Amino acid sequence: MTKNQWISPFLVAAALFAGNAFAHTDAAPVEVEGAWIRATVPGQQGTGGFMRLKAKEPLTLVGVRSPAAGVAELHEMKMEGDVMRMRAIKALPLPAGKTVELKSGGHHLMLQQLKAPLPKGSEVLMTLEFRNAKDEPSLLHLKVPVATSAPAGATPAPAHARGHAH
Known about the structure:
The chain is mainly β. It has no helices and 12 strands. It has one domain (6-147): PCu(A)C copper chaperone (Immunoglobulin-like). 29% of the residues are buried.
């Protein structure tokens, strides 16, 4: 049986679930705050996910999955000359005890090839995959609220489709 942890950004609750890709995976020792996904309009194929992560031990965020999207990736945005560029990255280090913010204009989660619009007030299931210093995997399952703007305490993020190149 695999131990995983479901965390709602507003109510923290632990549960045990079976059946992920690993023979044995412990719940990731990560605190999540201010998580949200930007709401979409019909026909929109991508959106961003934002949150603050604080690892209890050194970890690396190495993946993201969501049944709401055909593709879910870690992304970063960087200035190249006068142009803000976005690109997928394979890993994001999370130092122990330090808050790492996934926000617009920096590191964030990207959901692409959306299977349906994500209306305000809905929730998106996501799984974050981490590796520790021993390269042992852990997963964190999230129910992330969909909103048109950042919830109180979260960093506001402008619409993802403007002002940058891929």
